[in-house]
Structures are given as C-alpha cells and as structure tokens.
Amino acid sequence: MAAVLFVVTFAGTGAAFAYQSLQGGVERHDLDDILGSDRPTTTEPDNPDDALEGEAYNILVMGTDSREGEENASLGGGQDSVEGMRSDTTLLVHVAADRSRVDVVSIPRDLLVTIPSCQLPDGTSTYEQYDTMFNSAFALGGGTGDVGYAAGCTVRTVEAMTGIFIHDFVVVDMAGFKDMVDAIGGVDMCFDEDLYSEDAKLDISAGCHTLDGETALAVARARKGVGLGDGSDIGRIDRQQELLTNMVEQVLDRNILTNSTELYQFLQAATSSLTTSERIGNLTTMAGLAYSLRGTEMDGVNFATVPFDWAGNRVRPNYLSEELWTSIRDDEPMALPPDPDATDEAPDGTGDTGDTAGGDGTDDTAGAGEG
After folding, report:
1. Element (H or E) spanning 59, and its range?
2. Beta-carbon count within 10 A of 20 CB
3. pLDDT (tens digit per residue) in 161-220
4. pLDDT tens sequence across 279-316
5. Which of 21, 125, 266, 371 could form a disulfide with 221 if both were Cys (CB 3.0 to 4.6 A apart)?
6. Cβ-contact 93, 300 below 8 angstroms
7. How would you classify the pairing of strands 26-29 and 274-277?
8. 201 with 218: CB under 8 angstroms?
C-alpha cells in the first residue's frame, strides 16, 4: 500500500528519478541490530505488508548541532568551535493508531536520568550511568562518530525511562532543519520584544515576522541573550514548541501532504541530510505516513514537556511523568497536569517552573553550548 501510494503521489514528476534523488540523501541504520531484543513489548502489526497501517507509532526525533559539513559549520559558528557528537533537541512523537492525534513530548536535555549500557559499533559497550543529563546519551553512543549508535543510545535511554517502544528514529542536522523551513516558504512567528543572541546568530526585532530557515534555526537554538529569559533549556523549549506548532499549521493549511509538487519539495529538503532507522528512512514508508496524516486537524497536534521537578540547576522527572508515559503507551490523549507550570518551585524561588533551568544556563557536560 505504501509503495503504491508513493508512486501515485509522485506520478507525473518522474517518480523513479524523484525516488532515487530523495532516497540518496538518507543515511539509514538498523535499529534492531543496534538495540537487540531487550526492549519494551509492542504489538505485532495486523498487516505485515504495511506495519504502520492501523497501528500506534512512536518515533524519536533528534536535532543535532553537528558542525560536520560546510553549511553546518557556517550555521553553527565554525567547524572547530565544538567537539564531540551532541543532540540538542529531542522529541518523542506519538502518532495515534486512528491518525486523529499527533502528540509531541519535548525531553529537556538537562533532565537527569539513568542512561543504560549502550552497544558501540566496535562491539564494546558503554557503562550504565546514573543521575546523568539526558543528552549525554547521544554523546556516549556517538563516541566513535557513528550517528546511528548515538541515536540508538538515546532511544534505549527513552525506552528505559518511559517503557514506550520506539519504532523509529530520525536525526536532523542544522542544515536539514533550515532547508525544511525554507521549503514551506518560511514560518510565521510573533515576538513581544527584540531577541538577540550572538552565539546563535539571532538578531530579530519585536513584532510579527515570516522567518526564513536560517532565522528559524537561530530562534530554535538560542538560549542566552537579549529577550531570551534566563538562558535555560526549559525556556527555549517553549519557543521551539511554538515554532514547530506554526510550522505544522502552515503545512496543513497549504495541504502540502496532498500536493505532489509541494510534498516532493518538502521531502527533498527533509531528506537532504537525514539519518534515520531503516523503516522510516525508506521513502515509501515516509510518504505513506505523511499521506495517512492528511486528515489530521491542527487541534489534533499537541505539544507537551516532560513534567519535572527542579534538582539544583537541572530537572528530574516527577510522578506526573509516569501518568504521561502511561497515556502514550495506552494510545490515549496525553495525561498532563491542568497547569503546565505545576511543578516544584524554581531555583530562584519565584515559583516560575516553566522557563527556568537555574544559574546562568551554562552547561559543562556533553551537549553544552548554544543549539
């Protein structure tokens, strides 16, 4: 079904050439080979020919600020300014079995978690680590420079924390995100005050703007600077979710998922520098999933952040997080506190727990820095 859909979607556009040109930009990894069998349980698909049909689907999306490549180096501030492999943004995306909802949970990089032992491509394994920043998982798994294993260690950490089976992963670099925004004609956002961050290359005035890809990337990456609050990752997540909400709204309003020309342009941008697990990296699967969401309304797209309590300058999942994970495992609407700021008091004593990471927002572990 997905293969037929892909051909129909691109009929008249040189489907074979289009497929080859898009598929060539995707670096795929076998997640089962990386993770093995010690994973949460999942149901077997009713239709073995289309494993996604009628099934709830969980995908882990990671944004990396890798400086590999000329464009990423330019966007990130230089090839040599940052060492190591780092994931800066992680989203758990749950697609409901009936395709009526897409629930997106932001996982703060400063979240303190247990990182299980992760297999490396040379056959060795990392040691289990306790009370460690969440985004260290990507750095640990990617210690040999393999993005697939970096993503695999992050998937293993999320599965251990949530009990949710992750079907696939996608890693997007800075250039890929920029190109996706440009492919949909930019994204509209309004700002109450001027925003400026030298580190993130952000300089935008108060008011409403249509952001091009480079500016949208800067908004997503910026933590410290004028108009950016306390420099925390928690505060940045709010801006990222607003940005992503506006992007989704524009994709749905312009019917990009059902317009073959615009869908091709979007997928061309999305796959230009993408690392994925085996299944979702197949263009027939990707196009089929996009088409299956054509009836999803904007009020069915929901964003949330892992409920947390403060732990010094970091954050820790609280009891409400288990209620959230349970609702996702059961394919139910996300269970969230009625007040999105209903967590313990922030480190500054203000009680504003939704946008403060404490201190000056600096980070001296793997994953530090803007973006």
Report:
1. strand 57-64
2. 11
3. 999 999 999 998 888 889 889 988 999 999 999 999 988 889 999 999 999 999 999 999
4. 988 877 877 787 788 888 889 999 999 999 989 888 99
5. 371
6. no
7. parallel
8. yes
Compute φ and ψ for 336, nearest 5 degrees. Answer: -130, 150
- List, in order, residues 6 or more apart from 259 with CB less than 8 Å away: none
Strand 26-29, strand 87-95: pairing: unpaired
Residue 174: per-residue pLDDT: 87
Q: What is the pLDDT of residue 223?
A: 85
First to last CA, the chain: 39
Asked whether the beta carbons of 97 and 55 are under 8 A apart, the reply is: yes
Set out the domains of the chain in order of their start, with CATH numbers.
Answer: 2-329 (3.40.630.190)
Task: Indicate if the pLDDT at residue 125 is higher than 90.
Answer: yes
Give yes or no for residue 12 having a pLDDT over 80: no
Helix/strand/coil (H/E/C) assignment for every residue in the chain: CHHHHHHHHCCCCCHHHHHHHHHCCEEEECHHHHHCCCCCCCCCCCCCCCCCCCCCEEEEEEEECCCCCHHHHHHHCCCCCCCCCCEEEEEEEEECCCCCCEEEEECCCCEEEEECCCECCCCCECCCEEEEECCHHHHHHCCCCCHHHHHHHHHHHHHHHHCCCCCEEEEECHHHHHHHHHHCCCEEEEECCCEEECCCCEEECCEEEEECHHHHHHHHHCCCCECCCCCCHHHHHHHHHHHHHHHHHHHHHCCCCCCHHHHHHHHHHHCCCEEEECCCCCHHHHHHHHHHCCCCCHHHEEEEECCEEEECCEEEECHHHHHHHHHHHCCCCCCCCCCCCCCCCCCCCCCCCCCCCCCCCCCCCCCCCCC
Higher local confidence (pLDDT), 169 or 5: 169
- What is the rounded CA–CA span in Å between residue 245 and residue 262? 19
pLDDT at 14: 46
What is the rounded CA–CA span in Å between residue 172 and residue 182?
Answer: 15
